[in-house]
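Dear Dr. H.,

I hope your travels went smoothly. While you were away I took the liberty of generating a structure for the chain from your last submission, since the lab meeting agenda had it listed for discussion. I wanted you to have the full record in hand beforehand rather than looking at slides cold. The sequence, exactly as received, is reproduced here:
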Amino acid sequence: MLKDRAFAHVVIFLAAVLVAGTLACSSESEPEETEPTPTSLPALTGSDLMQLTDDTKPATSSQDSAASRKGSLVIGNLVDTSGPHAKFGESYSRAAELAARHITEAGGTPVTIVHRDTGTDAAKGIAAARELIETEGVAAIVGARDGDVTIAVAESVTVPGEILLISPSTTSMALTGLEDKDFVFRTVVSNTGQGTVLATVATGEDHETAGILHINDAYGQGLADQFTEVFEILGGKVVGRAGHDEGQESYSSELAQAIAEDPDVFVAISYPEQAEVYLSELVEIGYTGKLLLADAAKSSEMVEAVGGDALEGTLGTNFAPRENRSLKAFNTAYWNAFSEVPSAPFLAQTYDTVVLIALAAAKAGTIDDSKAIRNALREVASGPGTEVTGEPEGIKEALKLISDGKDIDYEGVTGSMEFNENGDVNGTIEIWKIEGGEIVSTGRFEFPYVPAKSKGGGAIAW
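The corresponding predicted structure, in token form, is as follows:
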């Protein structure tokens, strides 16, 4: 049994994904307590959102669907409506449908979203992607939400088939170096960014040593690696590290391994389901230190389960833009359409992804040539060109400019959508905290940057 003093200076960083709006496991900022009032805008329910269970097929036959979609831009959406992250699946579908509605109402080519469940399972995701392409005839795919599934789908299906794939939530650093023939993009900052900010926050709290517990997947391992690299560049030392699998009843042995050397800070990189278990175990054994959590553990349900008093003062990180007019407009439109607060991670990124695909298709003058849409993607996502926003008025302006042969620069709900050569975007990482049992923003939004005083000083490139 570890002595109480072993926990005296332990701080927990929990990371998970998200994937995850706005910006982000959430990339999205936690909604304010005061909710917008819904208007008479009809909700997208029933037939607008397909039932996405293992055995359920589309509400109409493929032939009927093809007939009704004639002249539409058909976009596939890989979501998790079964498996460990199923609770976010319907919300992701709704965000995609909202973007499709706004494009259509702005006078663009009608957009049809075809949803398929991956169950957070690579084999199931591959099968779903093949169905979307071969049976549904999609021009592009949004997703997947899980990094391992995204990579599997890309390598097995979309890259060989030269179909555009854009993930709104895959933060895994492995995606950056994927041999993808420039057909794989993402609209969320990679874990190069979050790992860097986690490390700078840790050193900013004067922690010199760290222990890490992470989920054994591309997300967890990559984020742990990045934290370790930057933390040690800044003069810190990782003195303990352990990985864990999903679905464990207890994490006591992994916790003991990670904190065996009494680290100043304990970095936990796991999803809420696991975090809830081992944070509770820490409380039960008398842990009284601070906690620091990352994106996927930004969960009100997890805070309630562990206990707000035990987590009071905990800091965390997630992918999120500074509050802006477009983000406010998205949050209000989502609430108006679905009577649901857009608190799930990566909803705004999902919205931006669908809008970008539609604008690129308009620029390319096609609804079915995925390669042409890919070629136009960077043209609409970055300058030079007239800056347009993700609000309905901004989308309408963008479509008009494209129709007139003008260049545009889409500044989305989540900020800049300028893709680098690897299909990655840059963006801010929000620092949040738990206060009075609630998740609130500190108002700090940081671009990933290693201080110049370190040997690795300078902006992080990805």
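Two observations you may find useful: Confidence is low (pLDDT under 50) at residues 1-64, 452-462. Residues 347-364 form the longest helix (18 residues).

With kind regards,
E. W.
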